[in-house]
Inverse folding.
């Protein structure tokens, strides 16, 4: 993604602009430090750099973490002394000193290869320039990055790299964001001496997502290391030797990993690029908007690049706590579904069964009329997977005002328990998973349900040799795991201590139990949770310093729904309803809806719900509205509108507010801040974006369940990773992926 | 005047490009990516013969049990010998299964080394050394003689499947240059032989080929009857006597 990738925590995100608090951001306050007032004391400090050198801060605003403060060593970068933790490489020391060293093959999250040689710097007393990415920094080393030797080394390496590189810049998608372009302008010389014939390489077919032009490859092996280490699929390798080296899969294999799109970011040149985005736009034409992904419950931070009204591509944003620098393929490529099957006008189904476009006034009037003709107990509202917290708040308020309490969110099951937050949240937090040493996965396949959580588990398994036990149907996880069983009986055995895995759990320092949200749909959900609770108790998974009992949610809307209290009075209310308000809900079992029920579908895609709807109210998708989404760890994040809404669509909560006024039960909020203040009265954590509240009440507060555990084995909650919600089902790229990339 | 200089330089550059490029001297017999054929595709089953399975175990015992992947090169060599001189994709997959690594890691090793043939070779794979000392002594003529006699191009197998010609790096017989090697894959891994035929002439090399075709085993080593191994023609003319013994065998006594 280029040098200097800044962690993007904007002011909006950091919560400084909370409604109601005026911060004088535009006024610079004059600060006096103790050093300024105490001049002699400052000069007496021996460690401070000579006063004529400017103060240096680490590259990209990074903070340095000293795992062992006594072990800090001092090195000199261009004459500037800097303290670094022991074990850091010369390149990392230079980064702390604020010097960005050019590199192609080094990546902070991958193993060190040292084969591009672009990071060569001069080190005193060393006969040759040193590959800074691989050389550990020794105490007292004097590193020089701007001497003629280092500059000549960079020019030479760049000349070599450009020797066999084709002159593809005009037709290469990476132009404008290409590391090779940037570094040759900054560090290369202006001419080369190569007059022979360049070599060319056959392109490989890696699937419908990654476009390969292997002639452009500079053999940095970042993609090979990514695939081996982070994605866990050993598909790519470096074949041949010398200038005829090729990156490929040798036999024709498609990259089926769910993280395969990340090699597009990682490749420093245009060898691996995005196939759906090929030849569509240049990166300088695009406006980047920082937003949140809603295809799963992880809430990966993304940047939506748009040109005008069209979303051109989606790139990851750095968030160390949730998704690091990666996003799953679904998140990256589903955006073309935003252009298809969009609802743009309110429509009413006429007596002949066909839809007719009407004005908002008429549509809302009809809905208001019908809603007054039914009894309150026959009104049902279902919030969809992609609903934001504001719209769910509005829906619940409106239906409550109409007298009904049958509002729920898809995926939470027939009788969700929203009382105790720790019962539906990933209490360990995604970054906390790295501290676990034993995992027990119950009825969840993290690889398809939450690919970034799976990547984190894999990271822990690799780094700390964590053990993973899995209970559920046989599945393909990209790390070593023990398949303990398929159904709840295995859980009972583990709880009773009869299973060999129980001893592993009990002896673990930080056991982590992850229950999938697919369990919510089961009738014996309470029994299963109480058994899991017993296991957690015996393994001491819930302690003041470590909470290892987690639930992995499936949808972006589930956590916020439970925080806001979208719990229905009765789970079978649909069968006896006469007025159903589907707010983006496409996974409702349409057969359960009675023939004479009046269905209002408010959503952005003409997916499954519209086939039964009587009225369609078009609303905006996540890329077009500012909404609050809570991820599976309970961290609230907001999306930012990147593109304008389509046609006559409006924001979800605004439609409901308008409807409430027409229906005579006006909701008391008119603006975003007003509805957020209303949210604050119900669930104040929704307004504290980017913060996670640790669970105060332990799960054991729940009364003992007297349910019987059934013997039905756990099922898979996500059948097709690529098609899980209305936007992905409308996407052509996702259709190609599910046709060619799903593991049969 | 500048125009003339520019035109001259332009002509020079054009000449460089117009030079008929020599036929690319391929070392490895195959491409760096695999194309399925009827006798080389991942669906064909392949496993080591019973006799070779014992050899596999013996090879694996040379390496620590948690670093089985160190055995990749000897196992690939054994697989190549068993399969008649070349490695199929299924053979490489089987080796990957034995040493418990992903197949791509084995593919990487097999494509790196040019002595691992990934396309078919003849029962007798003739390798001509082309490095400087042999070249100076006429290895190009040897190679041309072989190719003309067999009627094939480099790395191509003759129609009867008996011979193929390839180029090899220096095999250390510079004193007996030029030389060829015959890798004998006609009897599987038990009868595998890798013999040097040194001091060859274009005529002699054709005789060797015909002898092999008849099933004979020509004597290996120098083909010059007047030489003994690397000694000169007509016998040594220096170092004729016994080496001088040290003044005193018992160093402590002196």
């Amino acid at each position: 993604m280029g040098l200097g990738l800044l962690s993007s925590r904007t002011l909006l995100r950091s919560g400084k602009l909370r409604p109601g608090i005026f911060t004088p951001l535009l006024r610079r306050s004059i600060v006096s430090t103790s050093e300024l007032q105490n001049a002699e004391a400052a000069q007496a400090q021996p460690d401070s750099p000579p006063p004529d050198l400017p103060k240096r801060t680490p590259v990209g605003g990074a903070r340095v973490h000293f795992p062992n403060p006594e072990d800090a060593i001092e090195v000199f970068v261009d004459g500037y002394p800097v303290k670094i933790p022991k074990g850091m490489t010369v390149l990392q020391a230079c980064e702390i000193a604020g010097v960005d060293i050019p590199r192609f093959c080094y990546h902070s999250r991958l193993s060190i290869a040292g084969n591009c040689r672009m990071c060569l710097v001069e080190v005193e007393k060393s006969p040759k320039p040193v590959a800074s990415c691989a050389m550990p920094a020794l105490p007292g080393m004097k590193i020089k990055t701007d001497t003629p030797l280092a500059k000549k080394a960079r020019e030479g390496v760049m000349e070599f790299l450009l020797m066999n590189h084709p002159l593809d810049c005009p037709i290469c998608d990476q132009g404008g964001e290409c590391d090779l372009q940037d570094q040759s302008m900054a560090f290369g010389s202006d001419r080369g001496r190569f007059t022979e014939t360049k070599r060319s390489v056959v392109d490989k077919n890696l699937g419908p997502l990654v476009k390969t032009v292997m002639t452009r490859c500079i053999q940095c092996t970042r993609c090979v290391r990514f695939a081996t280490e982070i994605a866990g699929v050993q598909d790519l390798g470096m074949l041949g030797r010398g200038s005829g080296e090729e990156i490929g899969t040798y036999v024709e294999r498609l990259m089926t990993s769910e993280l395969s799109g990340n090699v597009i970011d990682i490749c420093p040149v245009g060898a691996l690029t995005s196939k759906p985005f090929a030849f569509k736009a240049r990166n300088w034409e695009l406006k980047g908007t920082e937003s949140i992904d809603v295809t799963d419950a992880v809430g990966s931070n993304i940047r939506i690049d748009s040109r005008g009204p069209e979303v051109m591509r989606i790139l990851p944003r750095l968030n160390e706590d949730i998704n690091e620098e990666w996003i799953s393929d679904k998140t990256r490529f589903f955006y073309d579904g935003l252009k298809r099957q969009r609802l743009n006008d309110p429509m009413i189904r006429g007596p002949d069964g066909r839809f007719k476009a009407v004005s908002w006034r008429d549509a809302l009037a009809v809905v208001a009329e019908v809603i007054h003709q039914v009894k309150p107990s026959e009104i049902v509202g279902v919030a969809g997977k992609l609903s934001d917290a504001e719209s769910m708040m509005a829906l619940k308020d409106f239906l409550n005002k109409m007298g009904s309490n049958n509002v729920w969110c898809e995926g939470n099951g027939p009788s969700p328990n929203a009382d105790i937050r720790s019962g539906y949240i990933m209490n360990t937090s995604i970054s906390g998973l790295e501290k676990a040493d034993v995992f027990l996965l119950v009825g969840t396949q993290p690889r398809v349900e939450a690919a970034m959580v799976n990547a984190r588990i894999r990271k822990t398994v690799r780094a700390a040799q964590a053990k993973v036990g899995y209970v559920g149907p046989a599945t393909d996880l990209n790390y070593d795991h023990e398949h303990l069983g398929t159904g709840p009986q295995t859980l009972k055995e583990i709880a009773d201590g009869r299973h060999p895995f129980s001893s592993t759990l009990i002896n673990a320092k930080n056991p982590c139990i992850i229950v999938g949200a697919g369990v919510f749909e089961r009738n014996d959900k309470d029994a299963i949770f109480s058994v899991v609770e017993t296991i957690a108790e015996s393994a001491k998974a819930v302690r003041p310093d470590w909470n290892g009992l987690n639930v992995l949610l499936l949808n972006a809307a589930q956590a916020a729904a439970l925080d806001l209290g979208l719990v229905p009075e009765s789970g079978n209310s649909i069968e006896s309803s006469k007025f159903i308000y589907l707010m983006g809900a496409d996974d409702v079992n349409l057969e359960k809806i009675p023939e004479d029920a009046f269905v209002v579908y408010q959503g952005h895609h003409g997916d499954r719900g519209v086939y039964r709807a009587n009225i369609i109210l078009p609303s905006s998708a996540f890329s077009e509205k500012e909404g609050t989404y809570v991820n599976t760890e309970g961290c609230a994040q907001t999306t930012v509108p990147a593109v304008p809404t389509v046609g006559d669509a409006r924001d979800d909560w605004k439609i409901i507010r308008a409807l409430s006024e027409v229906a005579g039960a006006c909701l008391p909020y008119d603006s975003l801040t007003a509805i957020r203040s209303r949210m604050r009265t119900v669930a104040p954590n929704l307004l504290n974006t980017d913060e996670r509240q640790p669970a105060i009440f332990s799960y054991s507060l729940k009364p003992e369940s007297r349910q019987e555990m059934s013997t039905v084995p756990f099922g898979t909650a996500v059948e097709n990773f690529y098609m899980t919600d209305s936007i992905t089902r409308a996407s052509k790229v996702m259709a190609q992926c599910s046709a060619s990339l799903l593991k049969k | 005047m500048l125009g003339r200089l520019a035109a001259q330089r332009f002509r020079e550059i054009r000449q460089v490009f117009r030079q008929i490029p020599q036929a690319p001297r391929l070392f490895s017999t195959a491409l760096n990516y695999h194309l399925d054929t009827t006798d080389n595709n991942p669906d064909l089953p392949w496993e080591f013969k019973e006799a070779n399975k014992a050899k596999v175990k013996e090879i694996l015992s040379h390496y620590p049990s948690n670093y089985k992947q160190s055995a990749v090169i000897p196992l690939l060599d054994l697989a190549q010998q068993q399969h008649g001189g070349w490695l199929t994709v299924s053979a490489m997959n089987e080796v990957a299964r034995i040493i418990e690594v992903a197949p791509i890691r084995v593919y990487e090793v097999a494509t790196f080394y040019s002595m691992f043939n990934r396309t078919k070779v003849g029962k007798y794979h003739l390798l001509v050394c082309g490095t400087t000392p042999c070249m100076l002594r006429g290895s190009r003529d040897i190679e041309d003689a072989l190719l003309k006699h067999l009627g094939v191009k480099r790395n191509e197998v003759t129609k009867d499947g008996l011979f193929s010609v390839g180029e090899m790096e220096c095999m250390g017989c510079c004193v007996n240059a030029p030389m060829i090697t015959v890798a004998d894959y006609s009897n599987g891994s038990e009868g595998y032989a890798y013999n040097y035929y040194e001091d060859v002439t274009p005529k002699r090399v054709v005789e060797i080929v015909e002898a092999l075709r008849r099933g004979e085993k020509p004597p290996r080593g120098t083909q010059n009857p007047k030489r003994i191994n690397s000694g000169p023609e007509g016998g040594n003319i220096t170092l004729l006597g016994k080496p001088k013994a040290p003044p005193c065998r018992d160093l402590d006594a002196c």
User: Anything to note?
Assistant: Confidence is low (pLDDT under 50) at residues 20-25 of chain B. The radius of gyration of chain B is 24 Å. Chain B touches chain A at residues 13, 16, 21, 28, 31-34, 36, 42, 89, 101-105, 107-108, 111-112 (CB under 8 Å).
